[in-house]
Amino acid sequence: MSEISLLDGILITASSWLVIGLTGAVFSNRFSLITRVLFPLGAALGVLLALLALSSMGGGMQVRTLPLGLPGAPFHLRLDALSAFFLFLLGATSAGISIYTAGYLRRNEGPAPGLQCLLFHVFLASMCFVMLADDGYAFMVAWESMALSSYFLVTSEHHHAEIRRAGYLYLLVAHIGAIGILLSFGVMAGSAGDYTFDAMRKFSTLGSLPTIAFLLALFGFGAKAGILPLHVWLPEAHPAAPSPISAMMSGVMLKTAIYGLLRVSFDLLYAQIWWWGLLLLVIGLISALFGVIFSAIQNDMKRLLAYSSIENIGLIFVGFGLTLIFNSFLLPHLAALALTATLYHCLNHAFFKSLLFLCSGSVLHATGERNLSKLGGLIHRMPWVTWLALIGVLASTGLPPLNGFISEWLLLQSFLFTSGLPQGYLHMLLPVAAAAVALIAALAAFAMVKFFGVVFLGQPREQKLAQTHDAGIFERIGLLWLALGCVLLGLLPNSVIALLDPVTRLLVGSSLISAASSHGWWLLAPISEDRASYSAAILFGSLALFIPALFFTVKSFYHGRQKRVPPWDCGFPLQTPRMQDTAEGFGQPIRRIFSSFMRRSREHPSPFDAQPRYRSVVEDPFWYWIYLPIARLVEHGTRLIAFLQHGRIAIYLLYSFVTLLALLVITKG
Predict the structure, then answer these.
(1) How far apart are CA 73 and CA 68, in angstroms?
(2) Which residue, 153, 215, 229, 304, is most buried by CB atoms nearer than 10 A?
(3) Coil, strand or helix: which one is 116?
(4) Burial class (CB in 10 A: 0-12, 13-18, 19+), 537
């Protein structure tokens, strides 16, 4: 393939997604065609996109101008290492989600499959064009197409009022964020009004305008990423959306915001200021801590995963901030280390969070429940989903040898080298930040143990759970694809770092490839072997040998020497599911420790109640600190406007007369 043909291939792939969507809309009553042909074909195109992006990672820059858009303002496209990496993320993750969706859709159940097919593939194509856009106009068209298609997917079951509210909130925050992005492009376009990214790259780095452009971009892309305090849409939209859409939004769409901020910070704004990185680091830490605390106390399965996404996006922002700090102080190798951790975690989160959302979708289909208090014991009825969910849980908790460990380990390695920074107070702040990252990782493990233990282990908490069924063949293939990604990304870190090498060289002018490849594929030493090293292969091999050996030893020594008797029942010979730990009880220690972060309300039963119930509700305090006051202010403003709009022509003529008099007085003065 020639270089230009790779970009052409990616454009053909994105256009083919649109054709698949239109075909599904035309043949909306052909359920078998949609689920057995179109969605699997979309998955195959995802694999093709990943391969094309992988082939173009080190192939240099490729550009294309499409005869679309407005007269004199065609669409400019550009494929470089940064866009190729995120296109690889999009293609590889969407392949598993698409094939899963082929089995997830049900005939005569839920939204129309043809409409879902159209919106789903428009969503994919628009994200692809976001990563290829090379001018502000094309970027905003693709960005808004992504927002609108995802909005309609979130509100698929719009006959529920709470889903309509969640969709409206998501669309509102998305458009407010889009205004910030557009204003950022406007600042960088300058007085010439040239919205091509090539013109923005020549933007002056003097004065306060670069900082204004960066802050506007942070606001706009942060709204899409779900950082505090712009996160409120995320825990509402994910439970409302179908599970494959939740997986796509959390696994891929949130990364488009990371892509956009990377593009602005390192490409369009050539110079960086160190306190930009400090701001990102602080916002990331607060978002991660807030997200993991609220994740640990949730009783809704999908809401728990949504808050977990806020936590992971916060960690990505922490790595992003460290990269900016190192780069601003001309420490390119350390900047490459922090950027590698950031990009690696983007890829890891795309796989394990998509896997967990899809597993929750299988549970929801089989049981009809999202409430953790009504689940349990599904390991016996859904073994495929259980064991694949376990891989996602272990990856999310950052346990080796799976992928979540590598990126968090690299992030902590980045903190170990902050002592060389010239700012003294950074030396005091960054160790505290490293300790906060360790605390966040521990709380994330707590939340994932709660998720897996309450849903899959123990006894069924509801009688209807005895009728549950495991995932179908297409769902299993999608789950296996994502689980395999979690395993391979964990076992082959040097190969992934080699994949990231062109991106880090493009953005910060350095990479880890020499240190990562000097010890072969099996040993990772990001700085030097005497400072820190890790071998997933050795760890995996040790576990593979130790666990069977331990099992064989125990069985050899104790087999036949003891009688099988019922376990000690602690004085309760007739245990019931109500006696096992609940989701509320599991999260109670976190609610007590971090109660100052929450807005809690309790309902205590009366001692005379025949069936006493205790209820504790934890709400997001940002609703009451920020959003409700803004809503009241807007309401007062609309009342004032309504007062002025009487609907009487005489009043409107009076307004015009008073305005004319005022203009005459001002002009005369």
Answers:
(1) 8
(2) 304
(3) helix
(4) middle
